[in-house]
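Project standup — Tuesday

K.O.: blocked on the structure for the chain from last sprint. Re-posting the sequence here as requested.
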Amino acid sequence: MERVKMAEAESLETAAEHERILREIESTDTACIGPTLRSVYDGEEHGRFMEKLETRIRNHDREIEKMCNFHYQGFVDSITELLKVRGEAQKLKNQVTDTNRKLQHEGKELVIAMEELKQCRLQQRNISATVDKLMLCLPVLEMYSKLREQMKTKRHYPALKTLEHLEHTYLPQVSHYRFCKVMVDNIPKLREEIKDVSMSDLKDFLESIRKHSDKIGETAMKQAQQQRNLDNIILQQPRIGSKRKSKKEAYTIFDTEIESTSPKSEQDSGILDVEDEEDDEEVPGAQDLVDFSPVYRCLHIYSVLGARETFENYYRKQRRKQARLVLQPPSNMHETLDGYRKYFNQIVGFFVVEDHILHTTQGLVNRAYIDELWEMALSKTIAALRTHSSYCSDPNLVLDLKNLIVLFADTLQVYGFPVNQLFDMLLEIRDQYSETLLKKWSGIFRNILDSDNYSPIPVTSEEMYKKVIGQFPFQDAELEKQPFPKKFPFSEFVPKVYNQIKEFIYACLKFSEDLHLSSTEVDDMIRKSTNLLLTRTLSNSLQNVIKRKNIGLTELVQIIINTTHLEKSCKYLEEFITNITNVLPETVHTTKLYGTTTFKDARHAAEEEIYTNLNQKIDQFLQLADYDWMTGDLGSKASDYLVDLIAFLRSTFAVFTHLPGKVAQTACMSACKHLATSLMQLLLEAEVRQLTLGALQQFNLDVRECEQFARSGPVPGFQEDTLQLAFIDLRQLLDLFIQWDWSTYLADYGQPTCKYLRVNPVTALTLLEKISREMKDTSRKNNMFAQFRKNERDKQKLIDTVAKQLRGLISSHHS
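H.V.: unblocked you, prediction finished:
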């Protein structure tokens, strides 16, 4: 029973579920019925559900049938009305069809016209669109065409500007076109091409500048010379006008196109075609000779391309290389002034260009770079000038070189370069100039002294007298009173030497010009150089003349007279220097002239040479002496050679009348002393081992002749018997032997009142031994003591005794 009840309960639940599903099917949209049906199939009672569904369908059919039956009459009426409408509709359809056919027939032409209009409107729209696109593309094409034209005509900076506009303004508007892509791809290539071509122009410019630096420098130095001449004319008036004409017109290349020709033209290469006409009143400005547009173009192009630093480094590197080449002097520069001038022109040209670049560009070169180049140039230039100027031996070339260096320094100073070191170096060259002058004047003095006749200058008229006075400051009242013809005491070399000293002073003054030296410095320089001329050059020349082998006593006497007058003229030289330098001699630190000392030394040397020359003449006469030391004959007169010697001395001392008294007296005393000494040596020479008293008597006659000459007073001014004292040694020695007064000599030896005070025991012993040897030689028949043979032994014993005593005196004296 329970099972039946459970089955009934389940059946009721199922029936209720099916009823629910049917309601859902009826009320739910067909699209959402799927889940409902699925719940049926998920269950196990779908058969029963189908039965339920069929039952529900039949129920609905019955309801529909009831409803239709209820509305049937209305439906029939509606059908009837519909059939009537169908007939009317058919008529309407036929009318419409007929109307449509007529309309189609009538509108066919209109459709054709409209189609044509449509095509025209389409073409018009296409044309308008095309025109609009072409209007966008045409500026691009025009700019590109302009770019190619500028590239073709080498106008690279405008081309670069055009390229910039094309790339940033025009191409972005038409970037979707294929030809634009081609242009965009070519832009980097065009930039590189412009960059390379502009660099090529710069290289041509640099090469041309290197070749024409000397022309640029020459023009700049001409300008500086003209300005200096103008300054001298207007007495240091400030310069009128600009000294840099080209700097007043700055290049406007940033804003305007540069109208240039082919890069192969002279203008583009950097040098303008300017004829060098010396007759032109105005020298063109140094910068006016140079077209700097290649530099500016290249600088601007590299700046626009963002490679300015690369360009600056390249330019500076190349110019440094060119600077080193310019500063390398040619090996033969020292031979001519043109060599120096070309060297200076190149340096000036180089720095004129760099100075212009500094002032007309912004940062291509800076002051530090210019200063570095100038320091290098200054050191190398000074070193080169020191080396090459040392080879110059011509003072005129050194002077011209100095003037050229001053012009070189003044030119560069105009452009703001410091040139103090150049003027310092000129002071070094000044010393070298002085040396070359001294060498030149050494030759001049040598020629003057060699060509002089060493005779007083004769004058036969007032005109000749004034001419000599005009050349040399000489005043002598007695000479002026003398009638013509008359003679100056000095020879021609005095006025010639005096004038050459003045010429030397003028030459020194020329070098000091334009060196910016004070009057004191110029005066000091001239005085020092003149002192060197006097103390070294002129002194050496005089000494060489005095020391010549073939110079005679007359020439030496004239030299003494000449140097005396030159010594007196030194004060006039002092005045001359004072007049040209305006520095008084009393000024502190003023150098004094050493001319007085120079001429005194020369005079003393001439005096010594006179003494030496006289002694040599005396020696020459003494070489003619031919004494027979073994003679037994007693002579009655002096030897011939000595008579001739005395005659020579008399004539010589007669020439000494114009010499200062002391010179003549010293020469005479020196000659007499030398004669006495030579005679003594002749008597005592070792080769004469024996002599007789007869020979001694002849020798005594010669000494008496000498004493007679001394007593005659050949030169005035000696006190009585002073000159005879030169022969006192000989006289006492000869008297001792001739008078054989040994007892007196030996007894009074060493006493101040001794009669034979000047006889030296050694000399007496030497002469006594010679006589002793002769007496011992019994083989000689002419022996003076032959007639006294019986007394020979006693005499010999006496001689031996005297000799022994003399030796005792000698030994006691030495001890």
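K.O.: great, moving the ticket to review. The domain at 435-608 is CATH 1.10.357.30 (Tetracycline Repressor; domain 2). The chain has five domains: 113-163, 177-229+287-417, 435-608, 644-738, 740-814.
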